[in-house]
Amino acid sequence: MVDRLKVINFLQDFGCAKLSHLQKLFGNENDNFKNILYSNVVSKKGDIFVHNTRKINDNMLVALDILCKYKKRLIRFYQGYEPVYITFLTNEHLLYHIIVANEDNKNGIVKLVNSYPLSIPKADRLILAFPNEKELENIECDIQFLYTSYPELKVLNA
Q: Which of these CATH numbers, 3.40.1350, 3.30.160, 3.30.2010, 2.60.40, describes 58-157?
């Protein structure tokens, strides 16, 4: 059983996570994490766990989907602030930023990424998640990036 306090602190920092995220990130595929619900600090809506001081954030859920794909290569990861939802360090000592856009802010995110590195903290690679693939042609970034569309996380360039 995973330490209950670690999971609660994770949810306090990241706000929400799917059951599958918790199982992957905390290394226990069979745990249903119901033990964290008894604290009245965490609630569950469907398969999503939410810290009671936060709301479900769909962009964070997309960022966590991406982070889980890198689980085997992770050394550390940190919660960021919009549009960089998560920053993580891999065992190759590469620093990644996961940037998630939605329909409302995708044009602003493209401008922000194109102005890199001035407006975003330094990273070795970017992972850009957009709701569709149309914005890929508008991105001109000096740093290597992976572009994916969600919700299916279809990688469009590497």
A: 3.40.1350
